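1st attempt posting a full record on here, be nice pls
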Amino acid sequence: HGPWLADVEPEVLAEYEVDGTTYRTRELRWAGLPAWAVTRTLARYPVGRRVEVAYDPSHPAVGVLEPGPTL
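the predicted structure (as tokens):
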């Protein structure tokens, strides 16, 4: 990778509950992001912050922090 692309994939873990069942997701899209975008994205998810998780109502174990098109 060049200086503009992130060489690491940071890990973000979110825990969420649906109908009394706890789930966890690490789903965030890092592939091909420039390093500045990874830094900005991580800033939105400090440790302990409450966030919204989008999940598939038919399969609540499938959740993502930032829904959107698949890369």
